Each structure stands twice: as structure tokens, then as C-alpha cells.
Amino acid sequence: MSAVVPDESGLPPLRPPASENGLIGVVRRRYLLKLLVTREISARYQGTFLGLIWSYINPLTQFCIYYFVVGFIFNLHAEIPNFAIHLFAGLTVVHFFTETFGAGTRSIVRNRALVVKMAMPREMFPVATMLVSLYHVVPQLVILTIASLLSGWTPEPVDFVALLLGLLICGTLGLAGALFFSAANVFFRDFGNIVSVFNNFVRWGVPMMYSYEMVDDRFGRFAQYYLYNPLADAVLLFQRAFWVGTVDPGHKSVAAMPDHLLLNGAIIVGVSLLILCVAQFVFSRLENKIPERL
After folding, report:
1. Which of 10, 44, 101, 142 is the most buried (most CB within 10 A)?
2. pTM as predicted
3. What is the pLDDT of residues 173-218, one digit of tens each?
4. 3-state SS string over the chain?
């Protein structure tokens, strides 16, 4: 690594502010990012009796509602073997996306004092919310892993690849959306509500409470267009990682899983990274106006 050569005055050369901003600037200031993540986690549970348990009450409540209401009323327990694992695998990755997208959209406004007073890449706040959401995913993965093992799941390398691809898709798209809308939310607070409404539709637009087999039966050859939804692919990847290994390989729900799922996931990760680059560009065009609007 080459050292910075000082000029004749003995001081290091001046650099444009943009060189220290953006996602690259966030990576360079990892120590500050770590402080923000720690602060966010501590602030979220400060003064509460249950502490970290509250972060699991919401997804657990959703799981119980979907499991008992949707599962029993529509008799999906009979249609989908190990329906609880099928549902919880999808719920885990969907909650990671919606939490990243929703909290990231509000992150700039919520941290207005730091944004105005401190010189730091403002992308730091959406990135911190994404890492906090990822932090909350870990215990859910532990529960999912234990439940899958008890149901006969034997981990394979392909399962870990599918798990990683699913997390990358949701984390990258959630962060991209957070960058887009966190800047827009500074100018119009309506965007925070728009994201909340959008997240309500996400849960029904993925094969979480129903199987992909049902989509394939209903839409036939048009079911391939359903896979254009990257979040649907992320859910299927998580189900490939955990649920498929607990079911008889000859079951119709497993046989209906789309072909080349890992390849599709890798392509979507690449597209998601391009979307993230576009989001970073849009955010950088708006960030100079953020302090005055706050």
C-alpha cells in the first residue's frame, strides 16, 4: 500500500469530499459503523423488560397467525409437508428484507441530529440498519436449523450456498431500497408510509404461506414470470436450504421446485448489486440537500 506523500507544506494533499463518501467511505470507517450498529441495538431495547426478545415477538406473532389461520383454514398442513418449516423459512428471509427496507427508509430522519452535526458518509445509517436486521436474523436461523434437524434435515454444501444467496438478495435489495427511499423520505415523509404499505404486499407475493407447486398448477407455463420477483426466489432459496431436506424427495411439492434455482439466485444477486449501484448514485445526488431539509 502506497503512503500519502505530503506536499511542500508538510501537510497531506487535500482530497475531494466525495472520496470519503458513499458505500466505499462506509467500509473505510468500519469503526464508526460498528458504533452505530451497537448504538442502534442498545437504543432499541433501552428501558424494556424483555429486551432482545421483543425483536422476535413480531415475527413469532406473524408465524402463529399464518400457521393457525392460513394453515388450518386453507388446509395447507395437508398440502405442504412440514408446513411450519416451509413457513418459517420464508418468514425469516422476508422479515430480513422488510426490516432492512422499512427501518432503513426512516434511518436518516431518525438520526437527523447526527446527520447534521457529524461529517460522515450518510449511507452509514441505512447500512447500519441492514446490519442490525441481519443481527436479528441469526437467532431465527438457529431456531430454523434446530427445527430442520429434528425433522430429518441433513445439511449439504448446496444448502449453505442457497442460504447465502437468499440472504444476499434480500440484504442487497433491502439496502438499495433503503438508500432510494431514505433520501426521498427527507423531502416527503409520505415515502415512509409508502414503504410500510409495500411491505404488507411482500408477504403475499412470495411462496411463503403457499407452495410454489400451487403457483405452478394455477398459472402453468406463465409461472416462470412469477420468478421475476427476486424476493420469491430468495424465499425459494431459503426453502431449498432448510425445508426441502425435511421432505421426501418424491413429494409433488418438492418436485415442483423450479430448475436451476441456484443459477437464478446468482444472476439475481448480480442484478441486485447493479440496482444497489444505481441507488448509491441517486443517493449521492440528493445527499447535499439533506441537511438543509432536516
Report:
1. 101
2. 0.86
3. 999 999 999 988 888 888 888 998 999 899 889 998 888 999 988 8
4. CCCCCCCCCCCCCCCCHHHHCHHHHHHHCHHHHHHHHHHHHHHHHCCCCCHHHHHHHHHHHHHHHHHHHHHHHCCHHHHCCCHHHHHHHHHHHHHHHHHHHHHHHHHHHHCHHHHHHCCCCCCHHHHHHHHHHHHHHHHHHHHHHHHHHHCCCCCCHHHHHHHHHHHHHHHHHHHHHHHHHHHHHHHCCHHHHHHHHHHHHHCCCCCCCCCHHHHHHHHHHHHHHHCCCHHHHHHHHHHHHCCHHHCCCCCHHHHCCCCCHHHHHHHHHHHHHHHHHHHHHHHHHHHHHHHHHC
In this prediction, residues 32-43 reach a mean pLDDT of 85
pLDDT, position 14: 47
